[in-house]
Write a structure and sequence with these properties.
The structure holds two protein chains of two kinds. Chain A is 45% helix and 8% strand. Chain A is α/β, with parallel strands linked by helices. Chain A folds into two domains: 17-145, Glutathione S-transferase Yfyf (Class Pi), Chain A, domain 2 (Up-down Bundle), CATH 1.20.1050; 153-341, Rossmann fold. In chain A, the strands form two sheets. Chain A has a four-stranded parallel sheet with strand order 2-1-3-4, with helices on both faces. The model of chain A has no long low-confidence stretch (mean pLDDT 95). Chain B folds into two domains: 4-106 and 266-335, FAD/NAD(P)-binding domain (3-Layer(bba) Sandwich), CATH 3.50.50.60; 112-263, FAD/NAD(P)-binding domain (3-Layer(bba) Sandwich). Chain B is built from seven helices and 20 strands. In chain B, a hairpin with a 2-residue loop joins strand 6 (76-82) and strand 7. The chains are: A alpha/beta, B alpha/beta.
Chain lengths: 356, 336
């Protein structure tokens, strides 16, 4: 591996991101899968970094899942997106940041399509007025939320309490990074580091003390891939993709997987249970799995957020071995407590993959 | 010195054009930006299809131009048309006048790192066809350490919309097969694979080379492009490709991957080309006046083109063009 080669590519694919004042839109999937990630993001940027990130209660899904599943035509998705942009404009913002990778890909695709086909933009402008009576506007800048954490990764490092280091050995944790396909594979210039060697998550890992694992199936799909999962008959493809990745990363003995897509952490997490059920194989040490976390969860962990406030109990793979490696204190009794200490009851745990 | 013919470029086309112009009684002057004549071909070890030593061919060309005035490490920094022809200012401070200008500026090799998915400059064991040729000449390259499994990727930077080059680079297919055979000779135990889109064996003896590659050298030619290269824990290369004849994706672990880099327009001549009013064609190379009967003429009077500055060409094609440009220039000077 020639590190300088990667550094050159990373230098070629940099984006000039505005420092402040963003209109933030959540992800329909992530709010279900990892509800605390978005809350953590807003807390970090607003309260730890002192930035202005505004969100509007009237925003909706971007339509990405339906669009990529061929359930709605492109014009419908574009009109939904035009409405989101109109909300941004009405709220007095010009910079738009989204939580979801699929949304980021679709917003980028839409803006590029409008640029190339102005007649389509004019059509959508009319659709927006006819359906919502809203004024058409486009953002001056479009970012993904992981771009923001990447931009502020060194500011986060200054507030870091638990670096990505094994406190028992003093060695950096070995971290697998997995980028959502829609982050930069469609438009390499729109992602930090481009499509082949993205830097957006690598930069976070390195800034926070970890060591990046580069393994042969690094670029391979996590297993979500929309049709691979949404079409029930295809779910074997979904699982086999995930299986292929874990078989490839296994020899490197990673401690953690960090992702920036709604689906990736979900499938990399849940399929580990299914693989264990089907084959008896687990990829972490001592019968555990490898935690697959969102970048907000990792940022929260290194900054000292309570693991249960970060929602890490929502993961199938037990997080406790990672917390112990990082020396992060946690109260096992609070794992399944809701707001104000309400006991939510302990879920049934599988026996094929170890849980705490 | 009004009969001077200014030849910009001292590669195969420039040297051969100068040789023929001298034989025709004119006074060619070669201006070469690098420190030696010979261009790309001087870096080659053997030539397809019959494995001739490139050195033998280049040596003869050197002999032919030894009495011709040559400027090395010199570029044309400014060129103006005047009543007698052209006035060129050189980077060494000198100036020369000429009746005509021959652009024989050759090509640039496609920069393999632009195809990021192939990992050149990222993974140690990904090399270019030029680097392999250097290994054949010197037998020194620490990356080539008794490889057991070797892959060649055709069309790197050619026939590729993604990098903006839709043309065929013409010589890469034959070069890949030549180099594959040579690798089998150096490493007889190695398994050698080539990944191609189409095999374009257009010249005399080329198809024979293709058959020989498979029958005598047991090189396996796979019709499909490599889409991704990565590295495993041992530093071996893991490639993904598609075998379009079987209709199946494939994954393979290799010790060495050779990228057959295409030809691109030599952009270092752009300023002078612009001063001379010579346009580019749709592939980005220089535009000649007519592809059949004016292939050595630019659209500008007194400005001629030869060799790979107008399109990718093999060495025989280049030499043929260099000879024909000499005749064109001779006729132009004598009829003026």
């Amino acid at each position: 591996m020639i590190v300088e080669g990667k550094q050159k590519i990373w230098a070629d694919y940099q984006k000039d991101i505005p420092d402040d004042h963003y209109f933030y839109v959540r992800s329909c999937i992530r709010q279900s899968f990892w509800p605390a990630s978005e809350v953590t993001f807003l807390d970090i940027v607003r309260n730890k970094l002192g930035k202005d990130f505004y969100e509007n209660e009237y925003h909706t899904t971007c339509g990405g899942i339906a669009y990529h599943s061929d359930s709605i035509p492109q014009e419908t998705a574009m009109t939904i997106i035009a409405r989101q942009f109109a909300l941004m404009h009405e709220s007095g913002y010009e910079n738009y940041v989204c939580s979801c990778i699929t949304s980021f890909g679709l917003y980028t695709e839409t803006l590029e399509t409008w640029h190339e086909f102005p007649e389509l933009e004019a059509k959508i402008r009319q659709y927006l007025w006819d359906s919502c009576k809203k004024e058409f506007a486009k953002p001056k800048y479009l970012a993904h939320a992981s771009d923001m954490i990447y931009k502020f990764r060194f500011d986060i490092a200054k507030q870091m309490k638990f670096p990505l280091v094994n406190v028992k050995t003093g060695k950096p944790l070995k971290v697998v990074e997995h980028i959502g396909c829609h982050y930069s594979k469609m438009f390499p210039s729109k992602g930090f580091g481009g499509a082949e060697y993205p830097h957006v998550l690598v930069g976070m890992i390195e800034a926070w003390g970890g060591e990046v694992v580069d393994y042969p199936e690094r670029r391979h799909c996590c297993g979500f891939g929309f049709r691979q999962y949404f079409v029930q008959g295809n779910r074997g493809y979904s699982e086999s993709n995930t299986y292929k990745k874990f078989e490839s990363m296994e020899p490197y003995e990673p401690d953690l997987i960090i992702t920036n897509c709604p689906g990736c952490p979900y499938f990399l997490d849940r399929w580990q249970y299914v693989i264990a059920e089907q084959t008896g194989k687990t990829y972490g040490k001592n019968g555990y799995g490898i935690p697959a976390l969102t970048y907000e969860e990792v940022a929260g962990l290194v900054m000292g957020y309570d693991p249960w406030d970060l929602g890490l109990q929502m993961h199938q793979v037990a997080i406790e071995p990672l917390l112990e490696k990082m020396g992060i204190p946690y109260d096992p009794k609070k794992k399944y407590q809701g707001v104000n200490g309400k006991d939510l009851g302990q879920p049934q745990c599988p026996s094929c993959i170890k849980s705490v | 010195m009004k009969e001077n013919i200014i030849i910009i470029g001292g590669g195969a086309a420039g040297m051969e054009a100068a040789t023929q112009l001298q034989k025709l009684g004119l006074t060619p002057v070669i201006i070469e930006k690098s420190n030696a004549l010979g261009g790309h071909i001087a870096q080659w070890d053997k030539l397809f299809p019959a494995f001739h030593n490139a050195k033998d061919v280049v040596s003869k060309m050197f002999d032919n131009v030894k009495d011709i005035k040559t400027y090395l490490n010199t570029e044309v920094t400014d060129i103006q048309r005047n009543a007698d022809g052209f006035h060129a200012v050189l980077s060494n401070g000198e100036a020369i006048d000429g009746k005509a200008v021959v652009l024989a500026t050759g090509f640039d090799l496609f920069k393999a790192e632009r195809k990021q998915e192939y990992g050149y400059g990222i993974y140690n064991n990904v090399i270019t066809s030029l680097e392999l040729e250097k290994f054949f000449r010197t037998r020194k390259d620490e990356r080539i350490n008794n490889p057991k499994k070797i892959g060649f990727v055709h069309c790197v930077g050619a026939r590729d919309v993604k990098v903006g080059n839709t043309y065929c680079s013409k010589v890469c297919c034959t070069t890949a097969l030549k180099q594959a055979c040579e690798m089998k000779e150096v490493f007889p135990e190695a398994e050698v694979y080539t990944f191609y889109m189409d095999l374009r064996m257009f010249g005399p003896g080329y198809e024979d080379l293709y058959l020989k590659t498979q029958k005598d050298y047991d090189v396996k030619c796979i019709r499909g492009r490599v889409c991704e290269v990565s590295e495993d824990m041992d530093g071996r290369l893991v490639i993904k490709a598609e075998d379009t004849l079987f209709g199946k994706p494939l994954r393979m672990t290799l010790d060495l991957l050779v990228l057959m880099c295409s030809m691109e327009k030599n952009k270092s001549i752009d300023k002078i080309q612009q001063q001379l009013g010579v346009e580019n064609n749709s592939d980005g190379f220089m535009q000649n006046r007519d592809m059949y009967l004016g292939m050595n003429d630019s659209k500008q009077e007194g400005v001629f083109v030869a060799g790979t500055c107008t399109a990718p060409k093999s060495l025989p094609d280049t030499i043929g063009e260099a000879r024909s440009v000499a005749v064109e220039v001779f006729n132009y000077v004598n009829n003026k």
